[in-house]
Amino acid sequence: MKPVFVLPSALALMAAVCAPIPAPAQNVLTNPTVRYDSRHDVSAPLRDMERTARPSPQGSREMPEPGHRWQLPKGPPGADPVVQQSYLPAIHTATVLAFDAVREDEQNAQVPDTNGAVGATQFVEITNFDYAVYDKTGNVILGPTNTNTIFSGFGGLCENTNPGDPVVVWDKLANRWLVSYLNYSGNYALCIAVSTGADATGSYNRYEYDYGSTLPDYPKYAVWPDAYYSNSNFNGGAAQPCAYDRTAMLAGGTAAAVCFSPRDVFSLLPSDLDGATAPPAGAPNHYLQMGNSTNQLQEFDFHVDFVHTNKSTFSGPNTITVPNFAEACGGFNDCIPQPAGAELVEDLGDRLMFRLAYRNFGDHEAMVVAQNVTPGSGSSAQSAMRWYELRATPAGSAFSLYQSGTYQNKTNSLWMGSAAMDKKGNMALGMSVSGDKKDPGIWYTGRRASDPLGQLEKPTVAAKGSAVETGDTQRWGDYSSMSIDPADDCTLWYSQMYYNKAYGGKVSGDWDTRIVALKFDNCR
Q: Are the C-beta atoms of 400 and 412 separated by less than 8 Å?
């Protein structure tokens, strides 16, 4: 296809739409709630505990539906001004490795919430309910194992539970793994484990944080120099950002969680550090959410002080005007089609997608993130991927929109994406794809830093779907993840679900997952 050229008049329109508006006075919250772990210890090596672990539960179990918020008020009228009508013709990425990983028929959880992270020598994939470790050639180091095996012998609410909403991230500063899940059986708890070394099959410092009858739903985590930051959603659309004492967790000691309860926030994402350059000294963690209308994002700053916790602050919002969008599927409805009249599946259009990937390039800071939106003109699909690059120039200043785009297909829906950047500023975006004539599969795309702003290249097929979902009550995995390899700071790893007729047949409730590593040709 021919490349897209933006006419001067279109540029003027985009500038008008994205022009900054006067920022409202920011709120600065103080006097946080401080939680402490109800118990903590150091585990035996996971590779040893796995040998005597309980088998995965028999019979498929439906994971809890994430809480939702109502649709945002609509922004200014008019069409999506940053729809990409055709793809950049060049493909500057190459697939380094691709292989199938955890499957539903191995562990029986409906909707996997697939995500993964790449470390110094290993890749870890985590789903509901399984945890698996691979080397960087795709060889299995630890086969799919129930994630609660990490908490064997721990007692309390984290042992022998059904682990929901799992997350794994790599702490690039300490060469450690952070693994977390939500206990949703009876009383609620967040279960967090931090490895004692770079080997994901080794021992872990284990923590339980109790929430009683309050569900800390859809928790997401990020690594920052001064803390592990997180956010959980609560009933009624509220959210709670927390900072966990990273220094204490790395040492295996009692670890405080400093938490705020700001108003008018939902499904915040904390910024997760990528690359070899740390944030500016003393920089707060940056949280991002969809704003108060469909032409806004809101950024908040979390500064934590574990010595004098009352000096911790959560400030914002910094309102960032973005091109207008429409939430895909009305925010959270079942609208993604599959072939042959198979069930419609869910699209989470009411939140930003995990991760919020952060990088410090020295002269500026950058964050990239994606969300599911309604396609613009030229597409009959139900969902497209809106993506953003926010920048703070110079480093340490306020973030604003640098570029964005709506990546769509003429007939197939694109959703549940995740984005990250390499050390050259190239960005990759992975996503699910499905349509009336396309079985649910996995695509990725990308852009070199030198490509025209707002434009992405042709999609690459990471996994060709060969079956359709049925029997999962229209649910889809609620997130995926793109992460950057710390060994070269160039190779990007994506983990996502799809449907493969080799497991369960052509019409099945048995999902499969795919891990794909890709690299841009200009990153060395």
A: no
Distance CA 504, CA 510 (A): 6
Q: How confident is the model at residue 107 (pLDDT cuts 50, 70, 90)?
A: low
Which contiguous run of DSSP H or E holds residue 14?
Answer: helix 8-17
Strands 345-346 and 334-336, by their bridges, are antiparallel
Average pLDDT, the chain: 91
- State the Cα–Cα distance between residues 377 and 408, nearest whole angstrom: 10
- Torsion angle, alpha carbons of 423, 426, 431, 437, to 10: -150
Whether 224 contacts 172, CB under 8 Å: no
Could you give the 3-state DSSP secondary structure of residue 248?
A: helix
CA 126, chain centre distance (Å): 12
User: Contact 300/315 with Cβ under 8 angstroms?
Assistant: yes
Q: What is the DSSP letter of 50?
A: G
CA distances (Å), origin 363, targets 299, 359, 360:
20, 11, 8
Among 174-183, 331-340, 347-356, 439-448, the minimum mean pLDDT is found in: 331-340
Residue owning tokens 């793994």: 177
Using CA atoms, how far apart are residues 488 and 492, in angstroms rounded to an integer? 10
Segment holding 104, helix H or strand E: helix 104-107
CA 197 to chain centre: 24
Residue located via tokens 């493909």: 91
